[in-house]
Design brief:
It is a single chain. By secondary structure, the protein is α/β, with parallel strands linked by helices. It folds into 2 domains: 218 residues, Spore Coat Polysaccharide Biosynthesis Protein SpsA, Chain A; 209 residues, UDP N-Acetylglucosamine Acyltransferase, domain 1 (3 Solenoid), CATH 2.160.10.10. It is 17% helix and 34% strand. It has 8 helices and 35 strands. The strands form 5 sheets. The protein has an 8-stranded parallel β-barrel. Strand 2 and strand 3 form a beta hairpin. The longest helix is centred in the middle third of the chain and has 21 residues. It is elongated and about 110 Å long. The structure holds uridine-diphosphate-N-acetylglucosamine (UD1) and calcium ion. The site of uridine-diphosphate-N-acetylglucosamine has 27 residues, from strand 1, helix 3 and strand 10. It comes from Pseudomonas laurylsulfativorans. Its cofactor is Mg(2+). It is found in: Cytoplasm. Its EC number is 2.7.7.23, 2.3.1.157.
């Protein structure tokens, strides 16, 4: 079976009250449409057609990719009209229709739906709802076979009592779809070309409309306003949290934890409250992440400890290294095994060797720091001259006293020591002591100034 997927994403989304097209609103850091495309790709289709209309340029710009065919629907004349725009491009035998504003649909559910497409049969995803107001209703004949879908606005009182709702997601034979969509009319209460009318056509053509249901009704829930968007967000996060817990992560509170990317975890990981993981984050065994940390595009090797309120981006933390509380590790930071970064320390494009330490209040930018080297409190690299960035290179076993200014480019070789309060501007050789500060002068008999009396 060859498959193509059509994603409807042309609608306006007035109730979002936003300049951003509805399908670009984010769930877990990715647009709703981005999530649908991600799931669609996992079904390995020949091509994905995205029907766009409102905010078409913005959508195309944000999501452009080789496997996506954007099809413009100039006027939003209905879901059937939208699908019809994509039909001329379809070359495969099966078409799956998805929605850009229904982001939580699970790949497993779609696989079950696609299994229903066999000769003489198509697949429809339906959902049992306590209150199906607004949904198209699934009409079944006396044998329980689907015979039609009736839109809420077109339904009789008796039909409105049906609790089985149409999710809109369906899988059909491509050759039939072309015929059906060409025969749709807009002779209904809303004056729209309804995709749902193809169900009755299929039945009239002798096809069986077989149905599947999602395990979880939230999978087929759309977001029309920001309240619904927030509900989908929380649902996504709880689901992501459950997956991590199943893999051996303790979450202190799954309701206060957010994933906005792809996370790989080991076992016996502990994550405290209000942690946000973004982008690609790899967390190995026995890692502990304290409360209020943001960790983006980083790798935390076995046994790393991140203490409260740390912000880590584009960093690699070696086995048993630790950072925080209040550490800021910026892109290009590498901590080798057992390196230690303490409070109010900022690192950028800095390499901290095995067992090296920067315990307090430091800025280390564009720096190469050897094993076991100790950086005193208040030390900064002066890496920027206003035009160019320069490198600071420290060897192994260096001891930088407190409150040093290391004016790059500068080299401090293995075993060297710098005195507290030094401004280091030139090379310090192996095992030398560098003192780069004014000598202390003590003045005897010093009289403090007296307060001037105002007349
Ligand atoms: C649709 C279904 C309904 C189902 C419900 C589930 C039809 C006629 N009705 O109703 O049976 O219960 O979804 O939520 O299909 N879109 C376009 N172009 C258009 C019209 C719509 O791209 O011309 C897109 C919208 O952006 C949206 C989706 O299709 O993502 C559904 O459209 P919407 O108008 O919300 O359909 P409903 O009235 O909710
Ligand atoms: Ca809708």
């Amino acid at each position: 079976m060859s498959l193509e997927i059509v994603i409807l994403a042309a609608g306006q989304g007035t109730r979002m009250r936003s300049a951003l097209p509805k399908v670009l609103h984010p769930i877990a850091g990715n647009s709703m449409l981005g999530h649908v495309i991600h799931s669609a790709r996992q079904l390995d289709p020949q091509r994905i057609h995205v029907v766009i209309g409102h905010g078409a340029d913005a959508v195309r710009e944000r999501l452009a990719a080789d496997d996506l065919n954007f099809v413009l629907q100039d006027k939003q004349l209905g879901t059937g009209h939208a699908v019809a725009q994509a039909v001329p491009f379809i070359q495969s035998d099966t078409v799956l229709v998805l929605y850009g504003d229904v982001p939580l649909i699970e790949v497993e559910t779609l696989q079950r739906l696609l299994k229903l497409v066999v000769p003489g049969q198509m697949g429809l995803l339906t959902v049992e709802l306590d209150d199906a107001t607004g949904y198209g209703r699934i009409v079944r004949d006396t044998d329980g076979k689907v015979s039609a879908i009736v839109e809420h606005k077109d339904a009789t009182e008796a039909q409105r009592a049906i609790n089985e709702g149409n999710t809109g997601i369906l899988a059909v034979p491509a050759d039939r779809l072309a015929d059906w969509t060409s025969r749709l009319s807009n002779n209904n209460v809303q004056g729209e070309y309804y995709l749902t009318d193809v169900i009755e056509m299929a039945v009239n053509d002798g096809l069986v409309v077989a149905t599947e249901q999602p395990h979880d009704a939230m999978e087929v829930q759309g977001a029309n306003d920001r309240k619904q968007l927030s509900e989908l967000e929380r649902h996504y996060q709880l689901r992501a949290g459950r997956r991590l817990m199943a893999q051996g992560v303790t979450l202190r509170d799954p309701a206060r934890f957010d994933v906005r990317g792809e996370i790989t975890v080991g076992r016996d990981v502990l994550i405290d409250i209000n942690v946000i993981l973004e982008g690609k984050v790899v967390i190995e065994d026995d890692v502990v992440i304290g409360p209020n940390c943001v960790i983006k595009d980083s790798t935390l090797r076995k046994g790393v400890v991140i203490k409260a309120n740390s912000h880590i981006e584009g960093a690699i933390l070696g086995e048993g290294s630790d950072a925080g509380p209040f550490a800021r590790l910026r892109p290009g930071t590498v901590l080798e095994a057992r390196a230690h970064v303490g409070n109010f320390v900022e690192l950028k494009n800095a390499h901290l060797g095995e067992g090296a330490k920067a315990g307090h209040l430091a800025y280390l930018g564009d720096a190469e720091i050897g094993a076991r080297t100790n950086i005193g409190a208040g030390t900064i690299t002066c890496n920027y001259d206003g035009v160019n960035k320069w490198k600071t290179v420290l060897g192994a076993d260096v001891f930088i006293g407190s409150n040093n200014s290391l004016v790059a480019p500068v080299d401090i070789l293995d075993g060297a020591t710098t005195a507290a309060g030094s401004t280091i501007t030139s090379t310090v050789d192996k095992s030398q002591l560098a003192i780069g500060r004014a000598r202390q002068k003590n003045i005897d008999g010093w009289k403090r100034p007296e307060k001037v009396k105002k007349s």
